[in-house]
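Batch job 17 of 40 flagged for manual review because the log was empty.
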Amino acid sequence: MQFREKGRVVQLIRTSRDSRSKKSKNEIVGRLAKSNPQGSETLQAALSAEERKEVDRWLASQASLERLKRELAVRNLPEQMALAEAWFADQKDDAARVLAATLIPAWVRLRVALKRNGLAE
């Protein structure tokens, strides 16, 4: 089973060998949304037991990767904020104002999340 990411979708591809021509043949068995990779009943029915296990392993791997990305983002955030502070110190143009306008609401949402979870006052 292969997993091909195309935009917002992950294609599940089964590779089989044609006995006559001895060439590999790829067949798209199903698709999963990247944002919420849940297998439908139709997809589950189209997969063999071994393929379902492989999809489950892939989904677990993707979930682990997403958790690691989030942790890395948090651990790297203080450094990124220091770099942003230095960049904004040198910028006074409209592009900086636009970026600041997008950062402030994000910062407010982060502060709310920190307060809601008892991590900040």
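Reviewer: the log was empty due to a logging misconfiguration, but the result itself is present. Residues 2-66 form one domain. Unflagging and moving on to job 18.
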